[in-house]
Fold these 4 entries.
Entry 1:
Amino acid sequence: CAKAFEKECIFKGRTVNLDGHLISYFGDLKTDAAPLNGIVAAMLEAAPHTRAMRDASRGGLATALSELAAASTTGFVFDEETVPVNEAARNACALLGLDPLHVANEGTFIAIVPPEEAEAALAALRAHPLGQNAVRIGQVTDTHPGKVIMRTILGAQRIVTPLSGDLLPRIC
């Protein structure tokens, strides 16, 4: 079980993307599959007290954060506008009725980093070729234990839930 995090920062690497057969319909989409070992090693060197990491492949960002929150005694709060979403992926999600937060993201991960190591972690991520779009999206909170809250671009708060149903593997 994960233990409680203490006001750490949440980072997300790369942008939300879609790939596979959708590429033929949305020409700007490119695969997001990538090896994470190099970028993770660089970040851990800069932020050795990183509390947790999780890939955002099956179930997307929403599921990854929800699973971390459920396994700990803390919650997470993030801003919708800080999550980078590729424009072609956003358009495809809108057309297909998908939530970009639940779309599988191969080659993407989230990290829970102590505040005092946040800037160093972000600099290390951005210095890596795969981390140029890395951003700080939110923070750990004890206000909503076990829950993930997204502050929307309209100023509302939305409870983010994991993807429901079977998490099917992707063919990259």
Entry 2:
Amino acid sequence: MDTDANAHVDPLTEVLSLAGARCVSSRVLAASGSWVLDHPGTDGLELYAVVEGEARVAMRAREPTLSLGTGDVVVLGGGRPRVPDGGTTVKPVREPPVPEKAADPSGRLGDGRSEAVSAVGCVIELDGVGRDLLLSALPPSVRVRAAADEAATLQWLLPCLVRETDSDGPAADIAADHLARLLLVMVLRIHLDGAGIRPVGWLRALADERLAPALGLMHADPARPWRLGELARAAAMSRTGFVERFKSAAGVTPQAYLHDWRMRLAGYHLGRADTPIARLALAVGYTSESAFSNAFKRATGMSPRQYRNAARVRWDQDRFRLTTSADRRVPVPVTAADRHSRNPGTTHRSRRER
């Protein structure tokens, strides 16, 4: 971990890197008639965009129903079941985990009386080390309207994602993966720069123009023994005022945040490299391997060596799981509106199904 190389790395970049965001599956869908798709949600993120028409998404929680129009993009946090509901009494169709178990092998939903909506949906998986850090910083949903001033890039990327998801061309999977991740980054940027409500956490601190410079210093050089005075000066605040404002935004003190970030960095590198533990200890601010090992065990419940061994087992299992679940279906939670069409029915093609 070369601090010179990371001098210009911002916290959002580092958290996304630790989370290992990757699009594991995507789907283009064209729906018609009255229908409802019931989806249990994922442990990661879901990204949905309406290419044409209108849709609504309801989550089995107390969050309000989301209305989506043409060009709108939404990112949904993990673990919340989705129930698209357009005001219809149609019984929900449970989205199966793989194509072979589809309720309708033809891939059609609805009564086919009207063309309603076309959309694209992606499942984005996150790794354990950064997953909770990213999810805890996001609200249940982040929606960007097509008419928003900042949405021009999204509107350019969206047709590219649709084209690659629906393509049999060389490296279409890779292209769709990168485009989905780029859409995610753009949505998070817009969310970061906007005035919306953010949960208490690092992203809220990053959105604070006074706290962001101090947060950037800790991320740029986590090994440095940062003093409160140095961080407060970066924020142009008194030490007391800085600590109070940081804790109000991030939910923890600056020292606690730095300690947690060091442990996360260590966990990330333990699972991916054979870096000697003594060297890794220095890279996250510990001059003694034993002091680092004790701190790491208090934070994770495992010694660095135990954590490294367990991480490698999980990594092998994840690779096997991703290989054997390549045909997983990805739902797009949309419901049909009542518009006349000459093309009835619902069709959806996934880049993982062909």
Entry 3:
Amino acid sequence: MSISTIVHRDLQNGRYADGETALRRYLQEHPKDRAAQFFLRQLTENPKHVLGATYSPHVVQPGESYSTLAAKYLGDPNLFVVLARYNDSTNPSLIRVGSTLRIPGSRVDSVDTTATASAANVRDDSAAPQPASAEVAPHDDVPAVSPASPQRARQLGDESLALYRQGHHEKAVAMLDQAFALDPQLKSSDPDFVALSREWVANSHQQAMVLYLDQHLDQAIALWNRILVVDPSYEPAVVYRTRALELKQRLQQY
């Protein structure tokens, strides 16, 4: 059984127990599958621990679903399971127009071009003041680029773009990841490169969420740092990086 089948047959229809069983069985055969780990943690982790206790009310509009709301407010439609559980929903496919849902955190109306300012301003109202580390610009954690790196990064970027145009998106994203590791500032006005970069950002955010759900906070923060160098206005990374820093601080107090 594929992950897609488990998601559409079980998770979207509120068959959480069946979905958990199927995911665990799938992971026995594919123990390193990130998608399976991602959905399993949404089923087993405490939603308030994952998304935070602070929320804003949202009145459901026509055409909205937990998936569209997760995409809009959490940065990934596949986070519909944990968002539904956050709202005590036993069936994510059932959502009533006009009902009021809890949306984690506060919606940021605008995001500054610098991730430093964004990360400093996005906070839970009830939280204590941010530690200094929460206001460090993400790119401070990115290794310095050696003189030879930009040239190699451009080469990898060109190769990833060729793969993308051939339809090999997964390989293209993996190669672009190598390019960004060498030169996080790698840019191109090519529309295909822009689209590929967005795909890398979305994929990296999902990986960071897996790490966050598993409380590998340093690794998650490091990945969000990389994302924010590539796209400083990517709001989900700004928000969840800040939450990860807050959670890390709380854990260090115990």
Entry 4:
Amino acid sequence: MRASNERRRGGVRPKVFIVQAVPEEALTELRAVADVEMFGALDRTITRRELQSGLRSCRYLWVLGEIPVDGEILDGAELKLIAIMEILSRSVDIAAATARGIPVTTLPNLDAVTTSTAEHTLGLLVALARRLPQAERLLREGRWAQYQSMSLLGTRLAGKSLGIVGLGNVGRRLARYAAGLGMVVRYTDRGRLPEMEQQLGVEWRGLDELFRESDFIALTPTLTASSRGLVGLGRSGSPERPSTCSRPSRRQSAAARTRVSSSWRTSFLRRISERRHANPGRRWPGSSHPV
């Protein structure tokens, strides 16, 4: 309705730039009220030059994923609004946008986001324990040896211990899922949470103690200045204990690269790399290990 009113008044439709492909349903709704330009490649992220070029004629920016938007990017644009598809902004420099009078919107803390993140982490945990990525790779490459191969034995999760670093919304949901699988759940946070311990049946440990006693580790704290680089992988009590990491920004990147590329048998499950955040489109060292 607003778009048709603008056309009748001879107004100009707003123009939106989207940094990566989004579902067609979202594009249909957006195109009803605005002209849309989108970086649609599926095999790589947008480069800084491509982003700067796309913003020359657009006044509204929709940011998804880990695409850095800093003061230099903003200086080359005349934006009226930045919409971030995240609860907390990690990619957009809020201070730089504020200094230039550009409003920034984020997502509300939706339960759907919490559920999706916890389910994804649980899926990674199962995949690691049961060696699903390795099995899938062998099957696709035609190298599946035999039905009862000991090489893909993996381990069960029932009876194993999960250490959760950060018992926020995602950590609590993950704790419930893990308990349903018969896992012993321990956690660490900035302080003890007695009410949550009673509700969830979880046990508190200090960070070092948590790593020594856990078979699996999930990093689920909110990414802040204090949690960035929170965990160096040399902290792990045994190199044979796998760790599930929600965001490598919360661990020390140099230690991670050393550990992944070494002969130690520790495995990582990562969703987003801070290296990819700093260098869009560039592969992170060890990115094929293990999934």
